[in-house]
Write a structure and sequence with these properties.
Chain lengths: 349, 349
Amino acid sequence: MPETARRSDHLNATRYGNRPTMKDVAARAGVGLKTVSRVVNGEPGVTPETERRVQEAIDALGFRRNDSARVLRKGRTASIGLVLEDLADPFYGPLSRAVEEVARAHGALLINGSSAEDPDREQELALALCARRVDGLVVIPAGDDHRYLEPELKAGVATVFVDRPAGRIDADVVLSDNFGGARDGVAHLIAHGHRRIGFIGDMPRIHTAAERLRGYRAALEDAGTQVEDSWMSLGVTDPQRVRRAAEEMLAGPDPVTAIFAGNNRVTVTVVRVLAEHSRPTALVGFDDFELADLLQPGVTVIAQDAAALGRTAAERLFRQLDGTLIAPERIELPTRLIARGSGEVPPAV
Amino acid sequence: MPETARRSDHLNATRYGNRPTMKDVAARAGVGLKTVSRVVNGEPGVTPETERRVQEAIDALGFRRNDSARVLRKGRTASIGLVLEDLADPFYGPLSRAVEEVARAHGALLINGSSAEDPDREQELALALCARRVDGLVVIPAGDDHRYLEPELKAGVATVFVDRPAGRIDADVVLSDNFGGARDGVAHLIAHGHRRIGFIGDMPRIHTAAERLRGYRAALEDAGTQVEDSWMSLGVTDPQRVRRAAEEMLAGPDPVTAIFAGNNRVTVTVVRVLAEHSRPTALVGFDDFELADLLQPGVTVIAQDAAALGRTAAERLFRQLDGTLIAPERIELPTRLIARGSGEVPPAV
DNA sequence: CTTGCATATGACAACGTTGTCCAGGCTCTA
DNA sequence: TAGAGCCTGGACAACGTTGTCATATGCAAG
């Protein structure tokens, strides 16, 4: 073994444990650095015999190319970032997976993190990802001001927002048709004879919640019904408060005969409340959930396609990177009403 | 503006879009490269006045430190990799989130990917993460031979396996007590008078499935009952086959009076089948799932704590990195029986 | 005015890889 | 056998950052 090899081994001893580098491999195989690089990358111009020697040295040393260095040299990291609200939320699992599949198809890795619905944390995460020089960023916004990303966009970081629109910045956005979905859901209740329909949803400062509320109002107005304040409960999302809100709507002299639930978690709590009440009350929920069909009655929902959201966003991202895409666009994906029973209950007399 | 600045801007034009570097900032601020580095990293020894000038240049150019280069220089990437089976699976959401939280507490980012239960893809992913020089790796094994990771372990990549043990390699493992949980679940059925108890689960080559089967057998043997082959259905996991298996067990002259379901998906399908049958049959499922309590009757389950699995694994990982940890260990976390009704149904006469 | 010292700043190498370019040896043809 | 052309292989710079070390500046003390 040439002298350089030993020296180099020693020099690298404290870094990354002590991973061998191409230099070490080259020394051991008795070839030049670049030849090793060629073998590792399958570039042409290496004799089978030389290649064999290099390969042997690689195996013997347990060498693995350092992609960090490679990235520094090449300028592209082949990785994209995903900032979402909560990895543990069943809605984001399929979305995240869809993004991953598209990334994989493009040879990219996925780095993701949860903002926990905190705008500061969203920003911190997004910027950390930019510092890692991800090629692109898929963001499910927690905040409503994304001007902090402007320098990054200008610098060429491909960016797509999903599920909620970007704030104060011009960028690609992929959304569900929250307005249309809610309108359809409420119209479905109206078609089954309901007029007094309750709405329980999140704070209207959240875009999806506002849109769904708007759809609710539109459907009732289309039917010529005047919406009463007591029918709506906004900014209510934790089980306790949803429960109280539902019970209030169902009590009183003139109770609602149906409830439209503004999201997943609300729907589930309302199901619990209705199960305890004797008077049958119709229910339609925004967002599908597992086992909704197994409940008695099955829960009628407006389903969004989370995987499609993720896939569409990621595909747009890579088209930005290809240069195929120019102007930012706003894409709305349709929702689908799934009737399972709870939405077809007629109004109690 | 000094001449160098313009030249540098031009040279960098095609890389990372055209992100400014410390060199560009230095040129613009009229200071040395290292001074910029000092300011960016909050190192001491910079006059307030100089700092102001540098900060100004940073803002004007929209500079953000390139962490890839930083990583190359420093040798630690402050990121860990997570290889799991399927991000979209509700079981892995909380696990993944727990790992992320621990990583965040240690200032690390999380890169994750799905193996889709394919050993080759698991290996490909794990090695890709090693090439990125993640500091550590949390792996939910798809395959049962992990010798391919040996060079990486030797090179100092901290590694913890979760949910299933590592194959042919000595490493940290964090598991649920699959054997004990299954035994408890079946014992629960036995305590309610059942003897003829069916088991539907995954292929025994999957460690968790094998352990649960072992627990099932142990409980019945403890009760002095001879297990009959017709009670067990192994390697059955897709809805169609689970359905057929369940129906077979429930038919015939001497049907089972209770079923123990080996995992989540099996449980759900069995619930459907039982709902169609008139004779009441008891059911206990391994793994909790959302809304299990809302069904009629509520589904009794053996719950594992996915978040605890993830947290424990990640914490061990960082203790490996600290050097606090020496010998690999196998940790088993307890499971919990949650009685909700379906497991307390007495045997039909 | 010189010496000594602390403090602010910059020049330079190094991290591990890839792209560019050149050299040496070979084959082929005239 | 010489010249052209191809193939193999290596030297060197560069990617953007940080660590080391040297220098310049200012000020106090002799």
